[in-house]
Design goal:
This protein has 466 residues and is mainly β. It has 2 domains: 138 residues, Jelly Rolls, CATH 2.60.120; 322 residues, YVTN repeat-like/Quinoprotein amine dehydrogenase (Methylamine Dehydrogenase, Chain H, 7 Propeller). It has 3 helices and 36 strands. The strands form 9 sheets. Strands 1, 3, 4, 31, 34 and 36 form a 6-stranded antiparallel beta sheet that branches. Strands 2-30-35-32-33 form a 5-stranded antiparallel beta sheet, with no helix packed on it. The chain is elongated.
């Protein structure tokens, strides 16, 4: 009989479901719920949610601009009592109307430019430089996909086959010759001609169809604009999921999360399809989605987050620490809008606004569950029967620990053992289990912090299986 011990202290690849549960590497988790990978390669409980305000009814959207959280409405008069928020009125063709969604909002020359949807699906562009913000230029396409670049506003044309842009420095002028104009994206398309989304890759404009993308050089001088490249077989139907991440452009495609830079420059599947480790999780979410998915890069933590109803898919990335890890957060509500102001991430659901707070370990007082599940590992001895007898855990907080011992049977798992604090130096934690491979699992459901740094499993090798 051989006595052994093995330690697991790297979780830098997060959730990765590309391989079977019994052949995955130790640093690839089967599940990471309500936790993320830190730059120290540990797994840590996500921040809790704190209720910020219940807004006065009638507004939609939530965008950080001009030092406040901006909302939009089209009927009556709305003034937010909480001075962190500012409500902007945008009538529809000069008359009161109900705002149902805000597709885009950003600051241009000191004022907000927004693409606002009203009852009936009508979308209008508004520039809040005066009391009548609706853009009236007949060449303004009034579409949902909008992007600011090269001192202009770009928007998908009404037919979807061109990208229109404004006069330099004037987002209300879509007509002036030799300054405003359009990019012939449909003419240069190799597949679907209808543009769905716009984003930025470096200083270039990216036009995405459902099944392809184009990279355009844009400039204040229309004569300097040109098609830089066609990118085939990568596109999106979800314009609000685009976000720049460390010089890359991330987005949700119809098949999972993808990126422009890796698709253009790298010929390895695991690098090309940045979201491939969680495709099997994401595809069912896409099929069942009730609202519009929203993605953004959160500078406060260096993460790309995409909200699909009440699930946040989180990509933690750090080139210094060599982290590229997916996890998922389960929120107690569906996310309708998401924005960052002064390093704080805010969420809107209905008229309620919440924020992530590092000092909070609950969702507005409600405890949420953290779940970490490692793959089945043979402790470098495949086909050898082993008897696990104890573990050590280095962690902050407490958890319930269990071991799965048969990948073919989801119910083949030990009873949970409650463990509090760092166990090293304080004696081993007895765990009795026999098998050829084991899946450690950790569950935390407290109102306190939780971080897992390392697990050591102690076992005896009993001999080969015949």
């Amino acid at each position: 009989m051989t006595v052994g011990a093995i330690t697991f202290n790297r979780y830098d690849l997060g959730i990765d479901l590309r391989k079977g549960a019994s052949v995955s590497d130790a640093n690839r988790l089967r599940d990471m719920k309500n936790a993320y990978v830190t730059t120290g390669l540990a797994t840590q409980k996500r921040p809790g949610l704190v209720h910020v305000a219940t807004l006065e009814p009638g507004t939609k959207g939530l965008s950080a601009a001009l030092g406040k959280l901006q909302t939009f409405y089209g009927s009556g008069t709305v003034t937010h009592a909480n001075t962190l928020f500012n409500a902007n009125k945008a009538q529809l063709d000069g008359s009161d109307a109900t705002v149902t969604d805000v597709h885009y909002a950003d600051v241009f020359n000191g004022f907000i430019y927004a693409a606002i949807e009203y009852t009936g699906g009508v979308i209008k562009h508004n520039y809040f430089s005066d009391a009548t913000p609706q853009v009236t230029d007949t060449n303004c396409p009034h579409t949902a996909a909008v992007q600011k670049a090269a001192s202009k506003i770009f928007a998908v044309g009404t037919s979807g086959e061109v990208i229109r842009y404004t006069k330099t420095g004037d987002p209300t002028d879509w007509t002036t010759a030799n300054d405003a104009g359009f990019l012939p994206s449909g003419l240069n398309a190799t597949g679907d001609r209808n543009a769905k989304a716009l984003g930025m890759y470096g200083n270039k404009l990216v036009v995405l169809m459902r099944d392809g993308a184009q990279v355009w050089t844009v400039d204040p001088d229309p004569a300097a604009m040109a098609l830089d490249d066609n990118v085939e077989n990568v596109g999106t139907s979800f314009p609000r999921t685009l976000s720049s991440v460390g010089g890359d452009l991330f987005f949700l495609s119809d098949y999972g999360f993808r990126s422009i830079t890796t698709n253009r420059l790298i010929d390895k599947r695991e690098d090309v399809d940045v979201g491939s480790p969680i495709d099997t999780l994401v595809k069912p979410s896409i099929a069942a989605i009730g609202g519009k998915p929203i993605g953004r890069y959160f500078y406060g933590t260096g993460q790309y987050l995409c909200a699909m109803d009440s699930t946040l898919y989180v990509y933690s990335v750090s080139r210094t620490s060599k982290i590229a890890a997916w996890s998922r957060y389960i929120l107690p509500f569906s996310v309708e809008a998401m924005t960052e102001l002064d390093g704080v991430l805010y969420f809107r659901t209905g008229d309620d606004v919440y924020k992530f707070a590092e000092e909070s370990n609950t969702d507005d007082g409600e405890v949420f569950e953290v779940l970490l599940e490692m793959p089945y590992m043979d402790f470098k001895s495949p086909g050898v029967l082993k008897s696990v007898y104890a573990i050590d855990i280095v962690m902050d907080g407490e958890c319930y620990f269990s071991l799965g011992w048969d990948v073919r049977d989801a119910s083949a798992i030990t009873d949970e053992v409650r463990i509090v604090g760092n166990t090293r130096g304080g004696g081993l934690i007895p765990i009795e289990c026999c098998g050829t491979e084991f899946s450690p699992r950790f569950r935390n459901a407290t109102d306190q912090p939780f971080r897992l740094d390392a697990l050591t499993v102690y076992f005896n090798e009993l001999g080969s299986m015949f």
